[in-house]
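[job 4417] fold queue: 2 targets
>>> target A
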Amino acid sequence: MAAVTVYTGFACSFCERAKMLLAHKGVEFTEINVAQNPDQRPIMMERASGARTVPQIFIDELHVGGCDDLYALDRAGNLDGLLGLETSN
């Protein structure tokens, strides 16, 4: 299974939605709250090509983007493959 990292913040409904989708799929992920760990924000921004908003989601080293991007990948049928999940076709 892929290594997933989710950069989050406080009281972020988009962060919660992204984490809910990953949890629903049974995916373990590392959460880094940049509000609690401000030293991680510049790291997030560098990895995410300057993006400042949360969540910022990475699957292995691939920058997926934010919550809407994660859900779009799922709707397109591409998320499970990136996550290394078996599909039932």
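>>> target B
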Amino acid sequence: MSGRRLSRYSITTRLALLFALALAALSLGAGGYLYHALTVDLTQRDDNELHGKTALAVEELSRIDSLAPSDTRDSALAHMVVGHDRLTLYVAGADGRVWFATRTPRVPAGARTALLESAQARRLANDGHSVRAFGRWAHLRTGEAVAVFVESDTTETDRLLARHLREILLAVLLSALLGLGAAYGIARSGLRPLRSMADTAKQISAEQLGERLSVEDPPVELRELASAFNAMLDRLQESFTRLNEFSSDLAHEMRTPLSNLIGQTQVMLSRGRSADEYRAALESNMEEFERLSRMVGDMLFLARADNPQTRVSRRPVDLRAVALKMQQFYEPILADRNVSLAVSGDGRIEADPLMIERAVSNLVSNAVRHAEPGSEITIRIEDRPLATTLQVSNRGQPIPAQVRDRLFSRFAHADTDGREGEGVGLGLAIVQSIMKLHSGAVTVNGSGEGETRFLLSFPSAAANLPART
């Protein structure tokens, strides 16, 4: 049975069939060994008897002067095979003429010469009978050479062996059938924990993601499978929870600008308006459209970043140059907020320049939004042995611990000073996704003096890591 055909059956059936085949092979091997041993034993017994009777006949003939009937009729030769119905003893002269025989010989005259030359017992067949014969030269007391032959009719022995062979084959067949039944029951019982795991897995759905496979009851061989399956369910549940939260947050975040657009439009359509009023309404709507556009763009970026097929194009990036670029870009906003930005340190990494600029820009934008008026935002770059880091620090209201735990989640806000609506809560989530793409990490911590520090850490071996695929 080929492997492809065998794969169509259940594991229980396959195990039962393989066990039955193995048992049949073992039984056949044991039966074949016993059959061979019996055959050898019976053949050895016949050969010993043939050699023994031949030796006695040779000794008896050495006391006879001639093969005349008066010398052979009452000789002891006739008494040598008394009680041995299967044996035939006969003596032939050098010319091949049979002078004495206890029974009609079955070995043809032409085969007797070969018996004398072989000096070993040989198996022959004649007239539906199988015989084993042995021949040897003898010498009379006068020195005359004669041939002594002893035959053993092995027809009954052959029938006995054939009957034993049939019984062995029948025993092999019965053992295979019994083994098949026993193996099927044993395999079905042994695979019961697997069926129990399958029943538990069938109950798992989007509404029941909390179900888990037991790792205590299954056999040792299935515990690793159960643990891996449970770990997969944990990841699925976590992803499903995040997806639900994301959908809920997305609906909540989009509801505000859409409500503003709908309300503003309804008010403008309630009666006739002047051109200036329509223009002011369109400018207000434009702000909401831009907010929605930024939200959609950020969501698309996060979707691409979370895609395992996303590739990162790595090139040398000068972090100090990136920080100075951000300092120049945010100069008008810094002046408006009465906040300054200082850059110190130097460092180079292998990364996607546009992604790194976006990550640093998001951190600086966040720092500007929450910095106290008159304070200073610092960007500190350090090239350490194990990692290159970029830290953005600002002084302002401290971030509560309960907010800090989910600060990098999507649509999370840390507006502790009451300024809401300036962002959609995706900036820090984008920073975290960018760092994961570069095998790095982003962390946040604060001090008792109200200083908040965001740290980007790029491993030194990042340049040697393959791009994420």
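[job 4417] complete. Note on B: The chain has three domains: 3-177, 220-306, 315-464.
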